[in-house]
Q: What sequence folds into this?
């Protein structure tokens, strides 16, 4: 984007907002009126525009569809107590999409394109940011390859798009998970740290099998030994054992969650023991048997904190301590919510208020 580049704006003639029932919002099915689009060609991002949300014209040969040269982000805007709109740590999502792009041989996405696009879109669709405290506006930035060419090589052209969905509380109930010890989502040298489309397609089949047995999600283990816990579908996973918060290290095999980092930052600030280290499946099972496992939860933008109430380990169901007694994860959830809504001091400068 050159400095003189402006964003062309084409507005809808009639907003769909009056048709939305904000008391019953299904996750990810209602889209705001507009989307932001930018195209990459000849080594440059150009044609920045806001247009009505709707179908894109694509040729059938684009490599995003065939070989998965496609990456995405997930973030949220919140309505603050004073009515203003807050983006939570958007620069961390920007950094991560840049990291994902590099791994997938996609072009660098400059801060101006990402942030200006985001701001322009939120400005035009600001009335869509829900008022209710449990609700928010989910934002999906993504980039994909668009060359009209069927060969396998990095594309020369790309599109970057941002669209938004108003959403309610993500998990209405605490989750039951199965610890997966056969299939893998990532490996050393792989793409686990990138929010790359194919990672999620590959996870569908094993997840579907666990769902058929009544579990909501999988907890992945390392691909070499399947003895160490990595993360869940779109959440990092943490445990409180005794008075220590334990989570897998953010190496190349796991996605470095913004929520994960926020929780660890709060935990350290509160003086809780924090260990980022390989977590053995067996030590979690042992801790549960001994009664030292206090809490287990997932962290991610969609739910912030998702309590894990049941873990299936090697065919055995472990019923974990009740959600009400979970001091730390409930405190993380409340504190993060309060910061995002402007009810608590934003000590770590996480908020980006529009
Ligand atoms: C997006 C994602 C997370 C959570 O990241 P947040 O930035 O906290 O939303 C965790 N694991 C995977 C695999 C993800 O795709």
A:
């Amino acid at each position: 984007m050159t400095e003189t580049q402006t964003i062309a704006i084409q507005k809808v003639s009639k907003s769909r907002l009056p048709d939305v029932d904000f008391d019953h919002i299904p996750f990810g099915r209602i889209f705001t009126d507009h989307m932001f689009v930018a195209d990459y060609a000849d080594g440059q991002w150009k044609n920045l525009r806001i247009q009505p949300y709707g179908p894109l014209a694509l040729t059938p040969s684009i490599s995003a569809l065939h070989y998965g040269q496609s990456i995405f982000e997930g973030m949220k805007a919140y309505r603050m107590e004073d009515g203003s709109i807050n983006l939570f740590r958007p620069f961390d999502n920007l950094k991560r999409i840049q990291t994902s792009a590099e791994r997938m041989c996609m072009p660098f996405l400059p801060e101006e394109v990402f942030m200006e696009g985001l701001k322009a879109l939120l400005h035009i669709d600001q009335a869509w940011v829900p008022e209710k405290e449990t609700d928010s506006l989910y934002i999906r930035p993504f980039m994909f390859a668009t060359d009209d060419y069927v060969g396998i090589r990095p594309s020369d052209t790309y599109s970057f798009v941002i669209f938004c969905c108003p959403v309610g509380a993500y998990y209405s109930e605490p989750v039951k998970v199965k610890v997966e010890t056969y299939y893998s989502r990532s490996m050393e040298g792989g793409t686990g740290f990138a929010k790359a489309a194919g990672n999620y397609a590959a996870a569908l089949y094993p997840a579907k099998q666990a769902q058929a047995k009544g579990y909501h999600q999988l907890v992945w283990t390392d691909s070499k030994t399947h003895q160490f816990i990595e993360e869940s579908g779109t959440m990092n996973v943490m445990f409180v054992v005794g008075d220590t918060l334990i989570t897998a290290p953010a190496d190349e095999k796991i996605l470095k969650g913004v929520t994960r980092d926020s929780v660890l930052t709060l935990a350290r600030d509160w003086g809780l023991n924090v260990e980022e280290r390989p977590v053995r499946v067996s030590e979690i099972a042992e801790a549960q048997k001994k009664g030292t496992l206090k809490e287990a939860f997932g962290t991610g933008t969609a739910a912030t904190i998702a309590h894990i109430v049941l873990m299936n380990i090697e065919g055995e169901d472990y019923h974990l301590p009740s959600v009400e007694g979970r001091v730390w994860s409930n405190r993380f959830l409340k504190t993060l919510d309060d910061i995002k809504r402007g009810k608590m001091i934003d000590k770590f400068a996480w908020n980006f208020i529009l």
